[in-house]
Amino acid sequence: MEKHLLLTVSADREASSNLRFIRHFFDALCDLRITLFYVASRPMDQEYHFVPSALETGHQRQVPVEEIKSPEAREALQHAREWLVAEGCGAGKIETKAVYSRFGTVHDIIQEGHAGKYDAVVLGKRCVSWFEELLDDSATNRILQERIDFPVWICRRPETGLSRDVLLCLDGSEASMRMADHVGFMLGSAPRHRVQLLHVRTRAEDRSAAMFQTAREALLENGVNPQQIHEKVVASDAPAQTILQEARQGHYAVVALGRRSREGHGGEPTRQGKSVTQNLLHLIEDFALWISK
C-alpha cells in the first residue's frame, strides 16, 4: 500500500534532514507519495486572529505556491521537489503546499497533519527545535497530547553509516502497540529492515512476553519477515539512557516508541521531571525518533 508522508520544508537547506532521512531509509522513493509543506511568515498586509477551535476544525488557508510573496518559500519547495525527483521519486507523486502562518509553525504543521490524514509527519532539523520547546512547555504539551493523532518522525542528522534497522520500544501501552502497527505498515515486506523489539524493564515483574507477542503479530500482519524480528529485555531504572545506548550500539536508523500521558516508556516522568520521549528528543543526534500517541 502506498504511504503518504508530509515533509516540512524550510528555507535553510542545511536543515533538510527529513529529506535525507527518507532517501537513506527507503529502498525505493517511488513507493512513497510525498507532500512538501512550507509555512511562510504572514505578510504585513494580512491579519489573522487566533481561534482555538480552528485547530480542531482543520480549517487552513492554503496558498498556491506561485502566490507566496516570499521567494525563499518558492525556492525551498522547488529545490526540495527537484532533489527528490533526482533521487528517484516520481514527479507525479510529489505535491507542494504552502500556508501563511496563523498559529505558529508547529501548530500549523499539526493542523495540516490532521487535515491531510498523512501516514506520518516528518520534521526537519529546524522544526525539531520548535517541537522540543513545545514539549518543554506544560500547557502546550497538553495540547499536543490531545490533538496529535498521527505519528511524528523527528529527524536531526541521519548518517549514511547507519543501518536501516528499527529499534521498537515497547512498554505494554496502547500507544506503543500503535507504533508497532505503524512500523509494520511503513516497512511492509521490505527485506532490508530489521526490527529489534526492546522492553526496558523498570519493575521486578517481567511482562515482556505478552508485549512481544502482540507487537510481533502486528508486524507480521503488515508483511514483515519473521526472520527480521528480534527481541530483547533490559532491566534498568533509566529507560531513556538505556534506549539511547541500545540505539547507538546497534547503529539503528530509527528509534520508535509510543507516547502516553501517565506511565510507561513514552510518558512516565523521570526523576528529572521529563518523560522518556522528552529526554530522547533532546539526546538524539544521528538516528530518527518516531513517536506515536
Q: H/E order of the elements?
A: EHEHEHEHEHHEEHEHEHEHE
Portion in beta strands: 15-25%
Adjacency order of strands in the biggest sheet: 3-4-2-1-5-6-11-10-7-8-9
- What gyration radius follows from the Cα positions, in whole Å? 19 Å
Number of domains: 2
Mean pLDDT rating = 80
CATH topology grouping of the largest domain: Rossmann fold
Helix content: 25-40%
Tally the helices: 10
Shape: globular
Contiguous uncertain segments of 5+ residues: 47-59, 261-267, 269-273
Q: Classify the secondary structure makeup into a structural class.
A: alpha/beta
Q: Report the top-level CATH class of the largest domain.
A: Alpha Beta
Major sheet: size, sense and barrel closure?
11 strands, mixed
Assembly category: single chain
Compute the number of strand runs. 11
How far apart the termini lie comes to 23 Å
Which architecture of the largest domain would the CATH scheme give at its second level? 3-Layer(aba) Sandwich
- Name of the CATH homologous superfamily of the largest domain: HUPs
InterPro entries: Rossmann-like_a/b/a_fold
Protein name: Putative UspA domain-containing protein
Family: Belongs to the universal stress protein A family.
Organism: Megalodesulfovibrio gigas (strain ATCC 19364 / DSM 1382 / NCIMB 9332 / VKM B-1759)
